[in-house]
Structures are given as structure tokens and as C-alpha cells.
Input
Amino acid sequence: MWQPFARFFPSRYETLAMLDYYTQAQYGPFLKKSPTDSFEDFYQSVVTIARECIDSDTRALDIGCATGRLVFEYASLGALKACGTETSDAFIHFCESLEKGAVAEVTYPIPSAGIEFMKDDICRSDLPNASFDFISCLNVLDRVTNPTAALASIERIITPGGILLFADPYDWELSPAPKALHITDIKNVLHGGTWEICNEKRLVYKIPTGKNSFRDYDCHLIVARKRF
Output
């Protein structure tokens, strides 16, 4: 979009409403005003899996980190480096403000070191080859312009032996990707010679859609190890 028009017609992920929805979903128990556990099961399930994959030598990345909750969780688990990427300037600004303690309405305990937020489009990623040992990509694939290119980038930037934690509802209704690129099962496009599927299950992801409304997504979650 031509930049002057972007001020008047912002991306849906640059709006205050979307920022509020993700803040509520990711930090519900840590909100000063109207704390809630309604959306917490998803994040606790992800952290439980990540705990088995992250140690003091792990370089961890959350792709499409939104308001940064999982990046902070990975740092709290002791990761050597915990990074989050986003295409949204609003989300990046919020994450950096929260890291600095400048978001008064959120009381989440921020780890003190090893955290970085970067603007990056996973479909055209600038991240170096083999730069992360653990990557999460959660509810992102059906929101990018080119799912195939996104997965190719993930395969490139993860280390041999690295772990991918993936979840997606394959909800293509609002996807910017052409129909020919829609994916119905991630296992169909993770090459068996490159990836080993270690775990698979369904997981409900709940997110606010309005002041008193929310939506449940039935997500396909897999844990996969890159063989080489």
C-alpha cells in the first residue's frame, strides 16, 4: 500500500483494537484491569512443550509474536536468546515498551536479558541461515501471503537438529494468500527426509473478537525435529 494511504487505511494488525485483543489474550492473568484466565490454556500448553526443548544453549524464536508473551516465556525458561518477529510496527512497539516496563496495565514479570524483537516477514525473511535451535510458528501460516515461502524460510533458519513447534487452524477465510497456496495439513508439506514428526495433537486457541465476544480455533499442533 502506498505509504500516505496507510495512515488512513492501516493493516488490521496495526489497529488499536487488534493490539487490545492480543494483549488480553496473551496477558489475561497479568492485566491490572479485569484480569482473566479465559485464554490462558493455549499458552500454558505451549510453554509445557517448550520447557522440554529449551535450555541455556537454545536460541529461540517466535514467528509472529504479536504482543510478545512467548518470547518472554522462552527467556524465562533460560534460553540463551529469545527473539520475536513481527510485520506489525504496532506489535513491535508494544513488545519493546513492555520489555522496558513502560506498559503499566500489564504486570507480567519481564526477564532481564537475552530478548530481542525484530521486524521481519517470514515469507521474505532476512534472518541468517541456521540461526535458531527452537522455532515456534503459531497461528501464522494462514495469515501470511505465501505459506510455502514461509515454511521454506523456517527450514532455512532452523539449525540441524532444531525443533519446530507449529500450530494452525488452517482458517483461510481472511488469508491474503491465493487459494492455490492454502495448506490443509502441515505434514503434507514438511518433507519426510528433512523433518521428523515428534508429537501431534489438537489444541484450542481462543482470542477476543470484541468487548464481550471471542472465537475458538481448533488448531493442529505438531512438534517436528529437523534431521539435518
Q: What stands out?
A: The radius of gyration is 17 Å. The longest strand covers residues 195-210. Residues 1-9 have pLDDT under 50 and may be disordered.
